[in-house]
Write a structure and sequence with these properties.
Blueprint (H helix, E strand, L loop, with lengths): L1 E5 L2 E6 L5 E7 L2 E2 L14 E4 L10 E4 L2 E4 L23 E5 L3 E8 L8 E9 L3 E10 L5 E3 L2 E7 L5 E3 L2 E7 L5 E11 L13 E7 L3 E5 L4 E7 L5 E5 L6 E7 L17 E3 L4 E12 L2
Antiparallel strand pairs: 1-2, 2-3, 3-4, 5-13, 6-7, 8-9, 9-10, 10-11, 11-23, 12-22, 13-21, 14-18, 15-16, 15-17, 17-20, 18-19, 19-23, 20-21
Length: 287
């Protein structure tokens, strides 16, 4: 575990458990939900690299390869591999200062035809956390890839979520996209209602502006500002849970196979090239 404390913010990282965040608090208030068990899925936030969300049945074609990935959801035979490899790998701390940490994850197995080096940089300040995420293709051919972050936020009956997106992806029972509902203009799909009142597990396309989460009972708000290439947002609001997920991502679920829209977002990363994204989480008091 690596712990940082700057001003009113506290951060705890677990490099051995998927390079995940275990704690991100402000004035001792959890901004990310605190780790609540031994699995990375019990954590506060983990990286999505080299892809986010599902690849349908683990199959796709790229750069002359017919790729077949094994199911990877812990304790399950879920047929669609999830979230890449970083979240299930050990990361190594390569730099630690009083307010920054750099973690690295090197992948060289054969299931994914492209070796790569991924890096996370955490920078903690008085009232914010910035996470930079990058990947370098160490293979010999272009690599399909995307990036994202998977933070968990505390949620109760009063929690509010504000965002503007151009479309909501329609998914099947296994959360694989089958279409999209496109708005005439950027739309707030919660319309100011508490986030717990709408249960979804899908992607919202083409974000406009920041994402905002408010806890009126705690008089606290976090403003989430992803980089421009994290243009889409996966939202997971499970019923009867004390958390929900707001995941800034660069590409649509299963975009390696079939794009829901022209804004699929994944790229083909050339050999020895880097791709990076970042996200800033700023916390403030509200009345």
């Amino acid at each position: 575990m690596i712990a940082l404390e700057v001003g009113d913010c506290a951060l705890v990282l677990d490099p051995a458990l998927g390079g995940a965040v275990s704690t991100f608090n402000w004035h001792d208030l959890p901004i990310f939900r605190s780790a609540c068990g031994p699995s990375v899925l019990d954590g506060a936030c983990f990286p999505l690299v080299p892809f986010s969300n599902r690849i349908a049945d683990g199959r796709f074609k790229a750069s002359g390869y017919q790729v077949q990935l094994k199911p990877n959801f812990p304790g399950s035979d879920h047929p669609h591999p999830l979230h890449g490899f970083g979240w299930l790998s050990k990361w190594d701390a390569t730099e630690v200062t009083k307010n920054t940490v750099v973690l690295e994850h090197y992948y060289s197995e054969t299931e994914w035809p492209w070796p790569y080096l991924a890096r996370q940089r955490f920078a903690l300040a008085q009232d914010c956390l910035t996470i930079d995420l990058s990947i370098r293709n160490l293979g010999q051919t272009p690599m399909p890839c995307g990036l994202g972050l998977h933070p968990y936020f505390p949620c109760n009956d009063e929690t509010l979520f504000y965002s503007l997106h151009e479309a909501e992806v329609v998914v099947d029972r296994e959360c694989v996209p089958v279409g999209a509902n496109i708005s005439d203009m950027p739309h707030d799909y919660w319309r100011g209602a508490p986030v717990a009142g709408r249960h979804v597990d899908t992607t919202y396309l083409d974000r406009h502006g920041p994402l905002q989460i408010q806890w009126p009972d705690k008089e606290t708000e976090v403003v989430v500002e992803p980089s421009a290439n994290l243009a889409h947002t996966v939202i997971y609001t499970p019923p009867e849970e004390d958390f929900f997920c707001v995941e800034p991502v660069s590409h649509v679920t299963n975009s390696f196979n079939a794009l829901v829209s022209d804004a699929g977002g994944h790229i083909m990363l050339a050999p020895d090239q880097d791709y990076s994204a970042s996200c800033r989480f700023s916390v403030r008091a509200i009345s």
